[in-house]
């Protein structure tokens, strides 16, 4: 009879310990906000382009949030500029903001005609979209759907030639 009581006590103790870890389990937490801050061009050749996507994440909640992964798709107009998954794990403290970078490799050669069409008038705004999923949580994953959009003006990113 004693071994059974020992296991019941151990089980109750474990449940009580987990109840203090509210940030490990999904609940009534306010969701973090993810923003694409900057797209940095690292290398731009004919058949390969490398970028770094700079993201900012804000944690408005009273508890720390564990970020598990980010699945993303970045569109310029209707063209898929980049997509992928970042499996960077990190913890963001309560009421804090953190930045993280995602390296991206792509080949825009097949979209060259569409890109030229978008850039024909560099002073006109071009719409962009960020779609994806942010997984948070420590023991159990909680998936946040992302959908952000805006406009960029290509002329702001084209370097002027000096004579």
Give me the secondary-structure topology.
Elements: H1 2-19, E1 33-44, E2 49-58, E3 65-76, E4 79-86, E5 90-92, E6 97-106, H2 112-119, E7 126-136, E8 142-152
Antiparallel strand pairs: 1-2, 2-6, 3-4, 3-5, 3-7, 7-8
Give the key terms:
163 residues, alpha+beta, Immunoglobulin-like, five-stranded antiparallel sheet, three-stranded antiparallel sheet, 2 helices, 8 strands, elongated
Would you kindly provide a written description of the structure presented here, covering whatever features stand out?
It is a single chain. The chain has a single domain, classed as Sandwich (Immunoglobulin-like), CATH 2.60.40.10. Strands 3, 4, 5, 7 and 8 form a 5-stranded antiparallel sheet that branches. It has a 3-stranded antiparallel sheet with strand order 1-2-6, with no helix packed on it. The protein is of the alpha+beta class. About 6% of the residues have low confidence. It is 16% helix and 47% strand.
Estimate the strand proportion. Answer: over 45%
- What is the CATH superfamily? Immunoglobulins
- The third-level CATH topology is Immunoglobulin-like
Supply the number of helical segments. 2
Low-confidence stretches: 18-26
Tally of domains: 1
DSSP strand tally: 8
Overall pLDDT? 78
CATH class: Mainly Beta
CATH level-two architecture: Sandwich
- SSE order, as H and E? HEEEEEEHEE
Helix fraction by DSSP (H/I, runs of at least 4) = 10-25%
């Amino acid at each position: 009879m004693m071994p059974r009581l020992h296991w019941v006590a151990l089980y109750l103790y474990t449940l009580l310990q987990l109840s203090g870890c509210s940030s490990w389990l999904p609940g009534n937490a306010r969701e973090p906000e993810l923003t694409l801050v900057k797209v940095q061009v690292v290398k731009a050749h004919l058949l390969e382009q490398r970028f770094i996507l700079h993201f900012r994440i804000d944690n408005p909640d009273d508890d720390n949030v564990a970020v598990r992964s980010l699945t993303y798709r970045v569109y310029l107009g209707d063209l898929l500029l980049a997509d992928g998954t970042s499996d960077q794990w990190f913890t963001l403290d309560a009421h804090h903001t953190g930045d993280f970078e995602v390296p991206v490799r792509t080949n825009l050669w097949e979209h060259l005609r569409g890109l030229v069409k978008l850039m024909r008038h560099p002073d006109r705004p071009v719409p962009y979209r960020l779609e994806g999923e942010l997984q948070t949580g420590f023991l159990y994953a909680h998936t946040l759907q992302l959908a952000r959009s805006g406009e960029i003006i290509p002329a702001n990113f084209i370097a002027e030639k000096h004579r």
